[in-house]
Amino acid sequence: MHHHDPEFHFCPVCGGKLESKLLRGREPKRLVCPQCEFVFYLDPKVVACAIVEMEGGLVLVRRSIEPQKGKWVMPGGYVDRGEEVPTAAIRETQEECGLSIKIVRLLGVYSYQGKLQVVVVYLAEPLDGTFQPGEETSEVRVFSPAEIPWEDLAFQSTIDALKDYCRMKED
Ligand SMILES: [Zn+2]
């Protein structure tokens, strides 16, 4: 599942010959320029998130890395090339908060002019596991809809998805 398009051979910055390199253990190999260290990321980036409903509320995680360090977000992260989007939401939720989940349905897709990310948000329910913050999260907790920390949410997509969620719960 982790492979790159074969048509890209040269660094678009300096013309150096790109190499396929493992930068971080858990991530796929990236095309990297050994001369100028440019990393060749391609196309829009798809992000898969899960709103996990439990104990009368939903699970949010607090980011321990930039961007938006210290802010709250639904568990989620980048979809790898060749990976199914719901599978990414399940994997990221496991990594970021220790929960196994089952996808219930799609809540919405959030994208913004000029932004690289396309954020796909699913509704999900927990299967098992206990809360355990992952590498990129400092805290995990359940918020009732009334407790959602609107002033401390990480991204526009977080705000918009949670607004849609609250609207859905009111109907
Ligand atoms: Zn280069």
- In helices, the fraction of residues equals 10-25%
Structural class: alpha+beta
Our count of helices gives 2
Provide the β-strand percentage band: 25-35%
> In the CATH hierarchy, what is the class of the largest domain?
Alpha Beta
Q: How far apart, in Å, are the first and last alpha carbons? A: 40 Å
Verbal overview:
The chain is of the alpha+beta class. It folds into 2 domains: 42 residues, Ubiquitin Ligase Nedd4, Chain: W (Single Sheet), CATH 2.20.70; 126 residues, Nucleoside Triphosphate Pyrophosphohydrolase. Helices cover 16% and strands 35% of the residues. It is built from 2 helices and 9 strands. Strands 3, 4, 5, 6, 7, 8 and 9 form a 7-stranded mixed beta sheet that branches. A two-stranded antiparallel ribbon has the order 1-2. Strand 1 and strand 2 form a beta hairpin. The protein is elongated. The N and C termini lie far apart (40 Å). The N terminus is likely disordered. It binds zinc ion (ZN).
Strand and helix map with partners:
Layout: E1 19-21, E2 30-32, E3 45-54, E4 57-63, E5 72-73, E6 76-78, H1 85-97, E7 100-111, E8 117-128, E9 137-143, H2 156-170
Parallel strand pairs: 3-8
Antiparallel strand pairs: 1-2, 3-4, 3-6, 4-5, 4-9, 7-8
Summarize the structure.
With 171 residues, this protein is of the alpha+beta class.
Question: Which terms summarize this structure?
Answer:
binds zinc ion; 2 domains; alpha+beta; 171 residues; Nucleoside Triphosphate Pyrophosphohydrolase; Ubiquitin Ligase Nedd4, Chain: W
